[in-house]
Amino acid sequence: MELKPLKGQHHVSAITASAEKNYTFYTQTLGMRLVKKTVNQDDTSVYHLFYADERGNPGTDLTFFEIPRAGQTVPGTDSITTTSLRVRDNSSLDYWKQRLEDHGVAHDDFSNINGRRTLAFRDFEGQRLMLVSDEHNEGVAGGQPWEKSPVPTRHGILGLGPVFLTVSRPDRTARTLTDIMGYRELPSFEGEAGQPPIRVFTTGEGGTGAEIYLVERADLSRERPGRGSVHHVAFRVENEEELRKWVDHITSSGLSNSGFVERYYFRSLYFREPNGILFELATDGPGFEGDEDFEHLGEGLALPPYFEPHREAIEANLKPLHTSRSS
């Protein structure tokens, strides 16, 4: 059975305690487009919000589950510790530094990480984010920022960049990435003072949209997740036929997994790597325009067909979130 290489990041899903504040921050401050307002398909009592480029192209989605009672994250190891977001070039980072300051968003100084200019910042719940310049990037193409965003298209977020995994036993995760998932290991780069180098893994066409950074921190306790933490990272698979091959492959590798899962907007497979981080493989399609047209993505509560008979009960359990842009 021949498997095509994974194509890079598909989406990252995180946790928020406030859908309303989350919507305001990611659309008004970061200028991403809400392309789908739906529910967590494993718990329909909570929202699942998808922010992305103009139409939610694969590789551009940062998503959030709303868990109103979620406590604050206690950072630690065996977790996804930073999600980076791609911008066009170094001058875009200058724009973003000023924008973050204008909006009172906590951020670090510019940094050079693995040869790229970056700007780390946190959202209102401490979600760890980083803008990364694509100035010299080659590899997976970025998305197309939405022209109606409050951020100029020239500086808009293009999609997901490298994802940082912080683990206590890096060799176990590394073997999963290379021996099972087909990633290639690249030269490492310097980490924090006194800490081991950060290992770099890539897949498919490579570049910022296809890199995983593996950070070793055996000195930390396991992260206690809450608002401001990341739930899982998903990787791109071309189509359903290919995903079904991956289901067989992951199963034969000995990793416990979900099997094939229908998510309507894409099809998925879930499993945990040996340090306990949740990975998902997700298909590039069908996409987000099957139940809403392009102009009105994210404006109404979208439910997959298998949840439509329960719409009234689902809506009754959700606090209204007004996302219509036509009024």
TrEMBL record:
Pfam families: Glyoxalase
SUPFAM superfamilies in the record: Glyoxalase/Bleomycin resistance protein/Dihydroxybiphenyl dioxygenase
Entry-linked CDD domains: PcpA_C_like
Highest taxon of the lineage: Bacteria
InterPro entries: Extradiol_RC_dioxygenase, Glyas_Bleomycin-R_OHBP_Dase, Glyas_Fos-R_dOase_dom, VOC_core
Gene3D superfamilies attached to this UniProt entry: 2,3-Dihydroxybiphenyl 1,2-Dioxygenase, domain 1 (3.10.180.10)
Keywords tagged on the record: Dioxygenase, Oxidoreductase
Keyword Oxidoreductase: yes
Residues annotated as domain VOC: 8-134, 159-284
Record GO terms (molecular function): dioxygenase activity
Protein name: Ring-cleaving dioxygenase
